TrEMBL record:
Keywords: Hydrolase, Membrane, Transmembrane, Transmembrane helix
Transmembrane segments: 16-37
GO molecular function terms attached to this record: hydrolase activity
Residue ranges annotated for the Nudix hydrolase domain, each copy included: 25-147
Keyword Hydrolase recorded: yes
Gene3D superfamilies tied to this protein: Nucleoside Triphosphate Pyrophosphohydrolase
Cofactor(s) required for function per UniProt: Mg(2+)
Entry protein name: Nudix hydrolase domain-containing protein
InterPro entries: NUDIX_hydrolase-like_dom_sf (IPR015797), NUDIX_hydrolase_dom (IPR000086)
Entry-linked SUPFAM superfamilies: Nudix
Signal peptide range in chain numbering: none
Amino acid sequence: MKHYLFKIYKILPLRWRWFISYLMSDKFLVGIAAIIVKDKKVLLFKHTYQFFWGLPGGYLKIHENFRQSIEREIKEEVGLEVVMKGILDIHKIKNRPAIDIVVFCDVLSGSITIDKEEVEKADFFTLRDIPEDFKRHQPQHYQLVKSILT
């Protein structure tokens, strides 16, 4: 039976094959977070919808690539113009239909101006001063930050 389904699939127009594949596939959220370092300090946010400190970021919109997404998120949330320099990590979030991408960014211009709807606090931290809740709730992100700051 499977053999015949593949034969039918093969002769379908490409857009129909894509649509069928889309319907049959698992769906994932794609999150993107940035490690932004200035003067040996990392930028962390306390989002209004989270109980702990974390890396700045958000979710990829359907029309965006990684660079557009993280640059938009940082600009919206704290008013900084950043440029993505590279991808540091990609991993599936345990027990959730989500993929997390961590990138490294440099600040091009601007000063921190918080969007109070999304961000409660934003600050740069030395490795020694990183909040404990960040280490506890986001250990994978903390290990990346630690490797960059040391």
